[in-house]
Design brief:
There is one protein chain. With 272 residues, the protein is α/β, with parallel strands linked by helices. It contains eight helices and twelve strands. The strands form two sheets. It has a seven-stranded mixed beta sheet with strand order 4-3-2-1-10-11-12. It has a five-stranded mixed beta sheet with strand order 5-6-7-9-8, with helices on one face. β5 and β6 form a beta hairpin. The two termini are 25 Å apart. 38% of the residues are buried. Pathway: Glycolipid biosynthesis; lipid IV(A) biosynthesis; lipid IV(A) from (3R)-3-hydroxytetradecanoyl-[acyl-carrier-protein] and UDP-N-acetyl-alpha-D-glucosamine: step 4/6. It is found in: Cell inner membrane.
């Protein structure tokens, strides 16, 4: 996935990068290393890096930062912001408990659930994507509960080990429930997407969450869906990548296998 120096010099200036659903975890060493390589070889060249949720498999609270693995992730992200790249963090459905302590440690700005910016001539609205899966009513009820400040404050008062046990139980339960749900229910709702375009006057929408990488043409504009990352399975099934915007306004998908394209061919889908 590493570009040659000649290729880098031939490209227009790299303005912004977008990635999501990396699902970092100590049990996924190859995925972790591929993400670190992305930070070292790509993010250092960009003016901005937007991480749009689920960077971690789960996050139990900022008091879990001291593990050796999390310290390694923090050091790699901090090197990006130290290099002058603006680092922006958006919560996903797995790491919404990331707080100011973590953001300060990596030199990032925490974004809300929806963020709009003008980048290289595009009016871009970004979101993780789970809030637009409105057909999954059970998940939407759960999401509304755990995103409440009061619920989070009470949860974070529990011992860290207890929180992790609860989260693991929720993840197992979620996987069981997903077997009973149709693919359509777990995808974004078309009307919710349309409303995002209209409410934020966007011509481009970028999100992750669904693990269905693609470029969609809507009447209101273009929608880019970011891929999830999985590099610890067979090489031929490896998936992942990022979206790049250059100073000339060009928007390009970069696959982990080194391919580039203006649209993603959907890969093997896994539940979000």
């Amino acid at each position: 996935m590493t570009n040659t120096t000649a290729q880098i010099e031939a490209q227009p200036k790299l303005v912004a990068l977008f990635a999501s659903d990396v699902h970092l975890h100590p049990s996924l060493p190859r995925t972790t290393e591929f993400f670190f390589e992305f930070l070292r070889m790509q993010a250092h060249l960009a003016e901005q890096l937007y991480l749009l949720g689920d960077l971690f498999e789960y996050w139990a609270g900022d008091d879990d930062m001291e593990t050796a693995y999390h310290q390694q992730v923090i050091a790699e992200l901090k090197s990006v912001s130290n290099a002058g790249t603006g680092l922006f963090w958006m919560a996903g459905n797995r790491d919404f408990l990331v707080g100011e302590r973590f953001a300060k440690a990596i030199g990032a700005e925490l974004l809300g659930d929806i963020y709009t910016a003008n980048i290289a001539g595009h009016a871009i609205t970004m979101t993780h994507g789970d809030a637009q899966c409105t057909d999954d009513t059970g998940y939407m009820q759960f999401r509304a509960m755990v995103r409440q400040t009061g619920w989070q404050e009470q949860f974070l008062l529990l011992p860290l080990t207890e929180r992790k046990t609860i989260i693991e139980g929720l993840r197992k339960g979620s996987k069981m429930e997903q077997k009973e749900k149709t693919a359509a229910i777990m995808d974004v709702n078309p009307e919710a997407i349309k409303q995002l375009f209209l409410d934020h006057h966007a011509d481009t929408l970028i999100h992750g969450h669904t693990h269905r990488p693609a470029r969609h043409q809507h009447a209101e504009g273009l929608r880019y869906v970011l891929p999830d990352w999985e590099c610890d399975i067979a090489p031929e099934e490896m998936r992942g990548g990022w979206l790049a915007i250059y100073e000339n306004g060009e928007i390009i998908f970069h696959h982990l296998n080194g391919d580039t394209s203006s649209s993603f061919t959907p890969q093997i889908n896994t539940p979000p």
